[in-house]
Design brief:
single chain; Leucine-rich Repeat Variant; 2 domains
Length: 178
């Protein structure tokens, strides 16, 4: 029995073809392409990020859905930005994908919070992420931000706790040994 393997060029072409199908009008075409991209794994992530940032609404939704499964921190900045997407489903999936990254998503998410605290869409997505991430050992760390997001004036009230958590994150990172 012989096994045929793809060259790197062929694999890239195949991934590019699948990425193009994420914007297809036919749902089963999109679904099948997404499943194949998830199977391709980390090799598909740069293209998924591109679709998340610049694809049509179908492609953005499919890319966000794939990234909830692939779980690659390289997608974090694009996922944080997608919390501002005009399509609610894309925002929700971006938040879900960020939540799968755990602590690794916190710093970019909190910086996004400082930039977009005025956006109810962003705050809603960030709240979803922080609830998920804060279920375990990070509960105490993210608690003040969650309480501010649930408060009376979250657009303003979230700023100070967000700064404090960012400071705490930097304090937890060990510096170079002298």
């Amino acid at each position: 029995m012989t096994t045929v393997t793809e060259t790197p060029e062929q694999a890239t072409e195949r991934i590019d073809e699948l990425l193009a199908k994420l914007g297809n009008e036919e749902g089963t075409v999109r679904h099948n392409a997404r499943v194949a991209l998830v199977i391709a794994g980390f090799a598909a992530v740069p293209g998924l990020i591109e679709r998340l940032e610049h694809g049509n609404s179908h492609a953005r939704w499919e890319a966000a859905k794939a990234l909830t499964i692939v779980r690659d921190e390289r997608a974090t900045p694009a996922l944080v930005q997608a919390l501002m997407d005009e399509v609610p489903g894309v925002r929700w999936l971006a938040a879900s994908a960020l939540a799968t990254l755990g602590r690794g998503c916190l710093e970019p998410l909190l910086h996004g919070m400082l930039d977009h605290s005025h956006s109810a869409w962003f705050r809603e997505g960030a709240h979803h992420v922080l609830v998920q991430v804060g279920r375990e050992d990070l509960r105490e760390l993210v608690g003040p931000v969650l309480r501010a997001l649930e408060g009376i004036e979250p657009g303003v009230g979230v700023l100070v706790p967000t700064h404090h958590v960012l400071k705490s994150l930097h304090a937890d990172v060990p510096g170079p040994a002298h």
